[in-house]
Amino acid sequence: MKERLLSVIDGFRGRRLLVLADLVADEFVAGRIQRVSREAPVLILQYDGADVRLGGGANAVHNIRTLGGAPLPFGIVGDDGHGRKLRELMQSLKIQTGSVLTERGYVTPVKTRILAGAAHSTKQQVVRIDKATHLAKRSGSRALLLQKLRAFRGRVDGVLVSDYGFGLLTPGLVQAAIAFARRRKVPVTVDSRFGLLAFRGMTAVTPNEPEVEEALGVTIGHDRRALEAAGKTLLRKLQVQAALITRGSHGMALFEPGRPPLHIPIHGTDQVADVTGAGDTVIATFTLALAAGATPAEASLLSNYAGGIVVMKNGTATASADELRAAVRG
Predict the structure, then answer these.
(1) Catalytic amino acids?
(2) Per DSSP, what are the bridge partners of residue 264?
(3) What is the mean pLDDT of the chain?
């Protein structure tokens, strides 16, 4: 199995994945704790610096790139500083941005995390500020993306859909992406934060446990029977070939029609540094592995390794092919 997984990782190189995604700016503002304010019972931070990273679906794009794949992002940003920054970051990684459209009036989604700590200590997240935004129902850019998707004639080895709920991924657009992948006979995966049951017929989904509980109206917790019932329900409702449920410190569970569930323990320690963006890493690795010819079980094992790598890093992070090889060998 180890040699097989290493072979799949080698197969990542050059695999082209079309990524239809909500593109998000993850902003980190760090400061050193000075004292308690006289104005209110809050800490005063001495500003140390800020950092903007590729977040949301853009983080999945970034992970595909660091794993050796060739992502083709299809998404929308606003005509603002954060939108320009996302485009600049992708271009610095030699990622094609010809299908990243700018729409006037739309505000690029931003998640700002305030990190605080004493000097020479690891900064901890104390608050997150989300810039609420939603793409208009009659967005011209969404219509143009649909046209570009239907007209695309380049080589594609897989399709990844990342829906963070910012209005781009309507059921019609996602179903068009699924139909596109099926015509090309390539795998298509969907990760939807709030609309898990809105789509049908993809190859696989990779929801986390709370998303499954919310979608199905169930409570899983530590009940393995409830987990397995939920997995079987997802397979039936979504008509997928695989459902990989991520469970945080409890690892992952893979469900496939006609096969017993595969329960995968967490890779590494459960004393994680930061879970920000780990789900993006999981679906990027899973989709890339399927595109490279892996079975869902092999793709799940590699995704588990990749997720274990990124949660030991601070902030929105990625896993590299070399890190993944080292984890498999270890």
Answers:
(1) 280
(2) 252
(3) 94
